[in-house]
Design a protein that fits this description.
Blueprint lengths: L2 H10 L4 E7 L2 E6 L3 E6 L5 E5 L2 H8 L10 E5 L4 H13 L3 E4 L10 H9 L5 E5 L3 E3 L9 E3 L2 H14 L4 E6 L18 E5 L7 H10 L7
Parallel strand pairs: 5-6, 5-7, 7-10, 10-11
Antiparallel strand pairs: 1-2, 2-3, 3-4, 8-9
């Protein structure tokens, strides 16, 4: 079993990787259930230790659940160029971007379609582009760009379905904008990846986040 397989199985069970260290012939993976797994690259073997050993061994000895192991749910607003760039980047990594407008509705409402396609993925990417302008009603002078309301709503649905650590928000913060860009949320623990002009600027950071959650990327 590879490092990525181990991380993927643990994440599918709701257990997060907190640290990893190189060891001779492999890597030692530390998880937040007080277990660690020594994974050996050439042989594919692994050894589990720690207080959470029993649970971790059970998880690793169980077949992967039916989540789409290549699927990444994409939330987007009105910036089609940014959406297309993100889709191309994910497909180059041999992942499967789930983009709602490209899926058959099957007579479902938008909410039902969102629930259907979100339930079988383990990661989501939110494109927060400056599509709208908003401000507090008592302070019109402090206008800011903000993401579309549907983007904020779908982001909240993703957090509820797959947890905030499995969602990355790509937010455009260009100096060319005449107003500041408002973050969809100022809550702690949200993964924000800033870019100025092109989504491709997020490539390195997003790839790292995906690999840390068990995705195998090709390029």
């Amino acid at each position: 079993m590879t490092r990525e397989d181990i991380i993927s199985k643990m994440y599918s069970a709701g257990i997060s990787l907190v640290d990893e260290k190189e060891i001779q012939y492999g890597v030692n993976l530390y998880f937040d259930n007080d277990s660690n797994v020594r994974s050996y690259k050439k042989s594919g073997k692994y050894v589990v230790d720690g207080k959470g050993k029993t649970l971790t061994e059970t998880i690793l000895n169980t077949d992967l659940n039916n989540k789409n192991e290549k699927g990444v749910f994409v939330v987007y607003g009105h910036d089609e160029a940014a959406r297309n760039d993100l889709e191309l980047m994910l497909r180059r990594w041999k992942l499967n971007p789930i983009i709602l407008c490209q899926q058959s509705s099957g007579g479902l409402t938008i909410i039902e379609a969102l629930e259907k396609h979100m339930k079988d993925v383990k990661y989501g990417v939110v494109l927060a582009t400056p599509d709208d302008i908003g401000y507090a009603k008592e302070n019109e002078k402090k206008k800011k760009y903000r993401a579309r309301q549907n983007v904020v709503f779908e982001m909240g649905m993703l957090y509820a379905k797959i947890d905030r650590q499995n969602v990355a928000v790509l937010i455009q913060n260009s100096t060319d904008l005449d107003l500041d860009m408002e973050k969809p949320s100022d809550l702690d623990g949200i993964i924000y990846i800033d870019y100025k002009n092109s989504v491709t600027e997020c490539k390195e950071r997003l790839a790292k986040e995906l690999r840390n959650r068990g995705y195998i990327l090709e390029d």
